[in-house]
Amino acid sequence: MSADTTLYSATFLIGFGDCDPAGIVYYPNYLRWFDSTYHGFMRSRGKTHQIFCNENGLIGTGLMDVGATFRSPGRDGDDLVISIVSAEWRDKSVRFNYRGTVGDRLLIEGYEVRGLFMRDGDRLRLAHTGPLKAYLEGDDGERPRT
Amino acid sequence: MSADTTLYSATFLIGFGDCDPAGIVYYPNYLRWFDSTYHGFMRSRGKTHQIFCNENGLIGTGLMDVGATFRSPGRDGDDLVISIVSAEWRDKSVRFNYRGTVGDRLLIEGYEVRGLFMRDGDRLRLAHTGPLKAYLEGDDGERPRT
Amino acid sequence: MSADTTLYSATFLIGFGDCDPAGIVYYPNYLRWFDSTYHGFMRSRGKTHQIFCNENGLIGTGLMDVGATFRSPGRDGDDLVISIVSAEWRDKSVRFNYRGTVGDRLLIEGYEVRGLFMRDGDRLRLAHTGPLKAYLEGDDGERPRT
Amino acid sequence: MSADTTLYSATFLIGFGDCDPAGIVYYPNYLRWFDSTYHGFMRSRGKTHQIFCNENGLIGTGLMDVGATFRSPGRDGDDLVISIVSAEWRDKSVRFNYRGTVGDRLLIEGYEVRGLFMRDGDRLRLAHTGPLKAYLEGDDGERPRT
């Protein structure tokens, strides 16, 4: 996959406290970094997740599905770059594909499937992903890059 | 301090993932367990924190101050008992004192100072602690014990 | 799936601090609870993960793959039961299947694929899963149940 | 306190998942950021915590005491700068003082007291802080700055 397809990247300095007694990253932290990268992507278009949700009558752009494959271990002192390498849009969900690297070394590949959740009485229902797609693709030509 | 002064206790099984590369608990986890014990204390009186706050016009019973002293290390497989051993009530804040033990061994002593936060226009202000004291002390004779 | 196939279950009281600004569980916490349940399963057979690894020349029983599907949201005050409902053994990996429920409500389904990692000079290599299978299946008739 | 006394600073982008249902930072995260800043300070002198400990026969530079006062709430999207503003050296412990700010706004003040722990048979004992002080103060003229 060529770097130029990357939609957004964020860097995380892996710390001592992110690692377990085997000296490698405690794996739920990778999911925190996926989520954090997604929220950074949101903000990079100019609004926090909260503001975007308020403007679109959503309670959140929550997780429906997540997965990850661990390729090599991360350790204290590694500079981990998490990239959103592609987005697959459907009517009621979007899949973001992630890669995490330290230099040339691949640590993790994974994905998040997210939906736009609205309140519907006591329940939640899924809204169309259109507004999120328009916002993240920045069809208004305003897309700030970080 | 005799055990009978304990206001509330919760048990946490220390796991592999709670420990750092030195094989001992990554210390911010103790604060998570303090906070979790406080919320368990709230619920033990019959309501979640959210319901209590909604009923009293609060946005939260948030932290003003926290401290802890580490006496001996916790490890994977330890059954940690966190106890709220006393509460010191003031008009606009309350200090909860915590002890964490594994069997007879003392791991941690600490405290949380909490305030009752209300919205006041764009700002937050502190409400009187009276409603929280009445709720936690269960002066209505309904105090469920766990 | 009938309850009697469950290999191990652990209960987690979902707390205020486990939830995000939308008031539902911040999803990486579910992976922490999967991992914690696995480590509880290990201990329920009589040894911590560390002792098992030391005895078998392993540096860890680490993650190769993880996935989860979110069925309904967890909230502050929910008693979440995470169950390991089955294990699929292969030569060099094992897949544990998880379900998380609050009462009758299904919150999450997921899996972890784990391998037994040994040092091999500067690298890691996968050991056979046989010792872990024998340990967890308790073929010695000593299997304690929790 | 003037900015020029700062020993080390690190920036953390506060994310959605770092916040609780009240929409403000879940407080144990601040302690994670203190710890992460300390480890960044270690690395900024050229070695990870692990390498420093290995070279000095230590199992870790662990926490003895921690405290924090919360001045104003952090929220999703805030760029939090955590600074180590001073270090107070004693024979067997060192206190690092922290400040966390978002722009001009003070969010948190706190401290960590750390000791250098060595194995002594089955027990831990405290080593002199001299090697850590020499390392962090970079008396060898090699001190890299970040």
From TrEMBL, chains A, B, C, D:
It comes from Amorphus orientalis. It holds the Pfam family 4HBT_2. This is Acyl-CoA thioesterase FadM. Gene3D superfamilies: Hotdog Thioesterase. It comes from the Bacteria.
